[in-house]
Amino acid sequence: MSAMLAGHLMRPVPRPTDVNPALPPAINDVIARALAKDPATRFQTAGALAAATAAALTNHPAQPTTTGPSGIPGSHPSNPTLTYPPTPPPGAGSAPGWPAYGPHGTAAAPNHGAPQHFTGTPPSLDGPDSAPTPQRRKRTRLIAAAAVLVAALLTATVVVGLHLFGHPSGGLGPYEPQTLNTKFGTVKLEHRPVAIAALGPGDPDAVLSLGAQPVLMNAAGATVPSWLQPLVHSSPPVFAAADPKAIAAAKPDLIIDTGDIDQPTYNALAAIAPTLTQPADNSQDWSWQTQLNWIATALGRTDAAKTLVDKAQAEQNTVRSEHRSFQGKSIVAVNYTGTTTTAAATPSPPSSYLESIGFNYNTHYKRSPGGPAQVPFNINDVDYIAQRSDVMLLLRTDPAAGGGGYAGLPAKYTSFGGTLVIIDDPATINALTTGGPAATSYLNTTLVTKLANQIH
């Protein structure tokens, strides 16, 4: 009980639209006022609450009442701004406990029916004798008011449950405080992060797939990839690269950047909020599965991570069984920009995905410990000729790319002796080079179809 009361006092009032995006935004203001910390600013009667709720749900202005306030004053926003103290640099003490309320998983399915409300009694079919009496009109108004009040109470009950208990029924359990040792220092999280900035490659995929909604994210071209769009239920700003001012304006309570960042970048981010980078002791290959589990630990969503990993494994098993022609064939993924040419090393997101569907990635392009994910590639090189693969997956981002054709390629590629599969769709290339649970599901249709058309 004390934890519940502390949650009500310390946590910001949650937004009903976060539970059900189909609700009108005006309902957020109603619930914010109904759950205000100061009793004097709350609705003074159930009738006032019902009237405000009806106005919000039907997009009609609330009517004044004689028993309490009627409007929603602008001084009580539904999502009050919280000012967070800067995170101390590593070694300067623990990160503060950030105010939070329990996050939710997948948003409830939108209610496609418009809210129903009474606008009067049905027209008479039996003449003047059946005209509504004042008593019947009063009863109708009472029924309508009762229905609206029930809707308001149900909404408030769901929101209060989220507010106090930290998770919807059957959703996330209590959050266990985490101490995570990153390569730039220790991150201490006392409460489940709910305002997350996802910056590194694959970080937005991990956060969204785990059921959280970032307040800001980075993505190639400052555009949410097509395979992530169905998972986004809000409107976070999207940037091509980290912008400290924009990140600070989003007021995150956790910044995630598991990419290859340096100390100055980390310091700038950690001055805004606790910042999660790769683990200090990263002895494992940094696969998307490792990345997902690391982020899930910080977010208190490890069960969801296990479900995602198991689902992906089952999907890859299905792809391998349906495309046995992939089995045992050697393959290399080559990035051609028109000015530079590199091969994806192994392990890397491209090599890991291709191996997961049955190919043998060319070990000539072995990645050195701590080395880059891309290594130089020269199709005219004697070593390459000696290590030729059965399949070359050519990822084209050069100016002449488009349509999956050979136009603009050097002659050596057009005369490649094995199977040359050209990929010039930016979304497919992005998914292959970043990885993630949603990216993997996307590749299982787009890329696998392309490969299957040429490999029999």
From TrEMBL:
<dbReference type="InterPro" id="IPR002491">
    <property type="entry name" value="ABC_transptr_periplasmic_BD"/>
</dbReference>
<keyword id="KW-0813">Transport</keyword>
<keyword id="KW-0732">Signal</keyword>
<feature type="domain" description="Fe/B12 periplasmic-binding">
    <location>
        <begin position="206"/>
        <end position="340"/>
    </location>
</feature>
<feature type="compositionally biased region" description="Polar residues">
    <location>
        <begin position="60"/>
        <end position="69"/>
    </location>
</feature>
<feature type="compositionally biased region" description="Low complexity">
    <location>
        <begin position="92"/>
        <end position="103"/>
    </location>
</feature>
<dbReference type="InterPro" id="IPR051313">
    <property type="entry name" value="Bact_iron-sidero_bind"/>
</dbReference>
<dbReference type="GO" id="GO:0030288">
    <property type="term" value="C:outer membrane-bounded periplasmic space"/>
</dbReference>
<feature type="transmembrane region" description="Helical">
    <location>
        <begin position="142"/>
        <end position="165"/>
    </location>
</feature>
<dbReference type="GO" id="GO:1901678">
    <property type="term" value="P:iron coordination entity transport"/>
</dbReference>
<comment type="similarity">
    <text>Belongs to the bacterial solute-binding protein 8 family.</text>
</comment>
<keyword id="KW-0812">Transmembrane</keyword>
<keyword id="KW-1133">Transmembrane helix</keyword>
<keyword id="KW-0472">Membrane</keyword>
<feature type="region of interest" description="Disordered">
    <location>
        <begin position="60"/>
        <end position="137"/>
    </location>
</feature>
<dbReference type="Pfam" id="PF01497">
    <property type="entry name" value="Peripla_BP_2"/>
</dbReference>
<protein>
    <submittedName>
        <fullName>Periplasmic binding family protein</fullName>
    </submittedName>
</protein>
